[in-house]
Amino acid sequence: MGGLSALSSPKPFNHHHNPTNPNQPTPNKISSLQFNPPPSTKSNPFPSFALKASYDAVPPLVVVGSANADIYVEVDRLPKEGETISAKTGQTLAGGKGANQAVCGGKLEYPTYFVGQVGEDAHGKLITEALESGGVLLDHLSVVDDAPTGHAVVMLQSGGQNSIIIVGGANMACWPETLSPEDLEVVKNAGIVLLQREIPDSVNIQVAMAARSACVPVILDAGGVDSPIPQELLNFIDVLSPNETELARLTNMPTESFEQISQAVGKCHKMGVKEVLVKLGSKGSVLFTEGEEPIRQSVISAPKVIDTTGAGDTFTAAFAVALVEGKSKRESLKFAAAAASLCVQVKGAIPSMPRRKTVLNLLQTV
């Protein structure tokens, strides 16, 4: 893994629709998680929070992952074994960790590509429309005819907590053995890449290897399947982002206290992961960088928690957007906390992703 302050030589980003203006300066390709440009490049900064990024000049956020139709049922409590209960309401909304994170990037007005698969069915159309309305670029979204669109049953309880059952569908089936040159090229031209664990590990490994070859940082959200993360994947990621439950499962260690979380993160460091971003729900978040003091971010309280679905995805994607725009790690954590606070106030995953202006307005009050 490269040094934390190294930057490779500038490399233009070629957008599929609008070729880069050759007279327009292009940002440096970021080689690691030190996203603040050195003094010699201050004349060519990344966009600030308040400005919309140019699609022509800025290396995009690329999200490779899952897209689901989330079937919501609102219940007072979960049913016991052998019990049937009635739901208050039921509806189907677009979701999936990959699609959630992509829409979050799009709504935060950062150029975002989604690489994923849906089926030729109504759920696939629902997701495609949600991605488009969220401002996501869909050049690399595939429609497959041999598998249904992935879906999930979300049991939403009155306190805002949820339990989820996932059916993989096109997220887990029909991927090519080797990703297309076009898909790998958009990864190599990214400013940052987001992965999750609701698609095959083999796909994530190919993407992470391609990103590393081009010095593009990779964040792996640990959410998804509960199997161990292959070492081959860990070797090629820059940030692992679990919640405390996922961290406990991945390390087989308790995560009830900050000390226990720190010890579990230490095990991740030994597995080769330099940065671990732990999402702690109502207790905020902590970014652990090997050899440095942890950076803690408290939660930005929401007036009322309606639905926590998608909050972790919002947090991860917002953190990635802030980093790639040149913000410090501490600033990026605060930006992500504000976005997540807004997310939990709206039902649904994709519908709850906040707009950039709303996040900025909230940041002015905290």
TrEMBL record:
GO terms for molecular function: ATP binding; metal ion binding; ribokinase activity. Activated by a monovalent cation that binds near, but not in, the active site. The most likely occupant of the site in vivo is potassium. Ion binding induces a conformational change that may alter substrate affinity. The keyword Metal-binding applies. Substrate binds at N68, A69, D70, G96, K97, G98, A99, N100, E198, D313. It comes from the Eukaryota. Residues 1-43 are annotated as: Disordered. Residues 19-29 have a biased composition (Low complexity). Pfam families: PfkB. InterPro entries: Carboh/pur_kinase_PfkB_CS (IPR002173), PfkB_dom (IPR011611), Ribo/fructo_kinase (IPR002139), Ribokinase (IPR011877), Ribokinase-like (IPR029056). K(+) binds at D307, T309, C343, V346, G348, S352. Keywords: ATP-binding, Carbohydrate metabolism, Cytoplasm, Kinase, Magnesium, Metal-binding, Nucleotide-binding, Nucleus, Potassium, Transferase. Pathway: Carbohydrate metabolism; D-ribose degradation; D-ribose 5-phosphate from beta-D-ribopyranose: step 2/2. Requires a divalent cation, most likely magnesium in vivo, as an electrophilic catalyst to aid phosphoryl group transfer. It is the chelate of the metal and the nucleotide that is the actual substrate. GO terms for biological process: D-ribose catabolic process. The active site is at D313 (proton acceptor). Its cofactor is Mg(2+). GO terms for cellular component: cytoplasm; nucleus. It catalyses: D-ribose + ATP = D-ribose 5-phosphate + ADP + H(+). Its EC number is 2.7.1.15. Gene3D superfamilies: 3.40.1190.20. Its main location: cytoplasm. Catalyzes the phosphorylation of ribose at O-5 in a reaction requiring ATP and magnesium. The resulting D-ribose-5-phosphate can then be used either for sythesis of nucleotides, histidine, and tryptophan, or as a component of the pentose phosphate pathway. Belongs to the carbohydrate kinase PfkB family. Ribokinase subfamily. This is Ribokinase. It comes from Buddleja alternifolia.
